[in-house]
Amino acid sequence: MTIATDRPLLILIAGPYRSGTGDDPALMAANLRRLEAAAWPLFAKGHVPMIGEWVALPVLDSAGADVFSPLASEVLYPTAERLLQHCDAVLRLPGQSAGADEDVRIARERGIPVYTSIEQVPQRAA
Fold this sequence. Notes:
CATH architecture: 3-Layer(aba) Sandwich
Number of helices: 5
Shape: globular
Helix content: 40-55%
Structural class: alpha/beta
Distance between the termini: 17 Å
CATH superfamily: Hypothetical protein PA1492
Largest sheet: 4 strands, parallel
Radius of gyration: 15 Å
Strand order of the largest sheet: 3-2-4-5
Number of domains: 1
Order of helices and strands: EEHHEHHEHEE
CATH topology: Rossmann fold
CATH class: Alpha Beta
């Protein structure tokens, strides 16, 4: 059953970014591409996709740091936590990720729906 919503939802896409990469930049980039691959299907359903790294990475860069910097722990997870104060839902993609698991925990604590597939995401009513 598909449930329609009358307004676009801001949906945080959560999944592995740094996890399982051994800090290999190419593998991290591949993980980001996997997260971004979910953006179009969410947009096509009438929603606004959001990925924490889309915010956190430029924040780190503007501070002269990167994901390997000690500052990263003060930016990456806190960015997602702050975003979840504005998000209407979370789409949890497969793969082991402590950060994505934390996003899900926070979302559930706040009563924010967590979807585990695009098919579960409601279509925005036309």
